[in-house]
Design brief:
Blueprint (H helix, E strand, L loop, with lengths): L8 E13 L9 E13 L2 E2 L4 E7 L2 E10 L2 E10 L4 E13 H5 L6 E12 L6 E13 L4 E4 L2 E7 L4 E7 L2 E7 L4 H19 L7
Antiparallel strand pairs: 1-2, 2-3, 2-4, 4-5, 5-6, 6-7, 7-8, 8-9, 9-10, 9-11, 11-12, 12-13
Length: 208
């Protein structure tokens, strides 16, 4: 804990193993395997106790298999990332029984399950980034009702000159563009989130 507290990671108890050739993650010569089994782990205020992760680094590519189960929910999946030169990552995550009251501060009891697929890229200076993917098999439940929501697909791209974002779900289409500024995209996404969460809390999700 004394070494990790400055990084917002505390308290930690568990078991970490690592071995191989080279620990420089930006080197294509590194060939390393590591495993983490966390009995107690808190990162930036989020309880990740119960996290198990296995990571293999080889030929400039990292592959991580993760499994998490605690009161926040259950997460299982794989993340594969290229980490030399430009960055490229693909993630497939199954999220079950997420406790949105604990995670997002929703005022009512709300449980969410979904499957997230994302492909993201970034330049080595992170000034140009893209992300595209889907959110599928979406289920929400409250003490009074359960509902299946439509799948969502999205695409996002930002560079010093232009930022674009597109979101599609059923008949809903949201598109936003800003010239070198993420604030407009953030405000549009926040408005969409506010409307959706208000519908969820009122038990009236409008998907038309």
């Amino acid at each position: 804990d004394r070494f990790l507290s400055g990084y917002g990671i505390t308290p930690f108890s568990g078991h970490v193993e690592a071995g191989g050739r080279g620990f420089d993650i930006t080197s294509v010569k590194a060939n390393t395997k590591a495993s983490l089994h966390a009995g107690s782990l808190n990162v930036m205020g989020y309880n990740l106790s119960g996290l198990n992760a296995d990571v293999h680094l080889e030929d400039g590519k990292a592959i991580a298999d993760i499994n998490l189960k605690n009161y926040l929910g259950r997460i299982k999946g794989t993340i594969e990332a290229g980490i030399t030169g430009t960055y490229d990552a693909v993630a497939h995550l199954t999220l079950d029984d997420l406790n949105m009251m604990a995670i997002a501060g929703v005022s009512d009891t709300l449980v969410l399950s979904t499957v997230l697929d994302v492909h993201a890229t970034a330049s080595n200076d992170f000034r140009t980034m893209t992300a595209e993917g889907s959110v599928t098999n979406n289920f929400i439940s409250t003490p009074l009702r359960s509902a299946e929501l439509k799948d969502i697909t999205f695409a996002f791209e930002t560079s010093p000159m232009l930022t674009t974002a597109d979101l599609y779900s059923g008949d809903l289409t949201l598109s936003a563009t800003a010239e070198g500024d993420l604030d407009y995209i953030s405000r549009s996404a926040q408005r969409l989130t506010d409307v959706f969460m208000a519908q969820v809390e009122n038990k009236a999700v409008d998907q038309e």
